[in-house]
Amino acid sequence: MPKEHALHLREVGHAFPGHAHLFTHLTDTMKPGEVVALVGPSGSGKSTLLSLIAGWVAPSQGAIERAEINHVGWVFQNPHGVARRFAIDHVVLPLLAQGHTRTKAEEKAHAIMDRFNLDHVAYREFKALSGGEAQRLMLARAVALAPDLLLVDEPTAQLDLATATTVNNVLAGIAQDNSIVVVATHDQHTRDACTRVIDLANYQQVEALT
Questions:
Q1: Which neighbouring-strand residues pair with 26?
Q2: How many other C-beta atoms are found inside a 10 Å radius of the C-beta of residue 171?
Q3: What are the residue ranges of helices labelled H in 10-149?
Q4: Structure pTM?
């Protein structure tokens, strides 16, 4: 029986050279089915922690273990796509890479885009999408990747409340598809939609009073 993948943070902290720690002594284990919100004031290290979890940056303190995690998806706060490509092409490509035929990949891509209320813009060029549509398209592409671990930076920053609610619901669905989802957010609605919260304000060093 295959091992369940998990993300283990052990006494993790990080500081950039010449600066104080953004956070310190963070210990946690994240498992499939969870949507974990990273919250805290601006500058507390939410995006930095996503980079540490992804393995792009090594923590200056502690260790991170990505157990049985082979596929990591990342959705940046500012969406980037191929300007003249149709929206659906961005979702089809990772499905083709998984071995699906073009017909099957397009069928699955339409279904994924429909979850994000995007199917009506499937054949619109990326450059013609609104900011909110582009952000949701990047989330749809991440779903198509079927990652073991999905990292999302401020997914609802450019969305109205109704659309943000749709995105929050889909993120929950991704986790139920056997993924670990970690979301950096300032949005109270997104925070409330997550299964649990890590508040980095609780892991900031406080200078001893003299």
A1: 12
A2: 25
A3: 46-54, 87-97, 102-115, 131-144
A4: 0.84
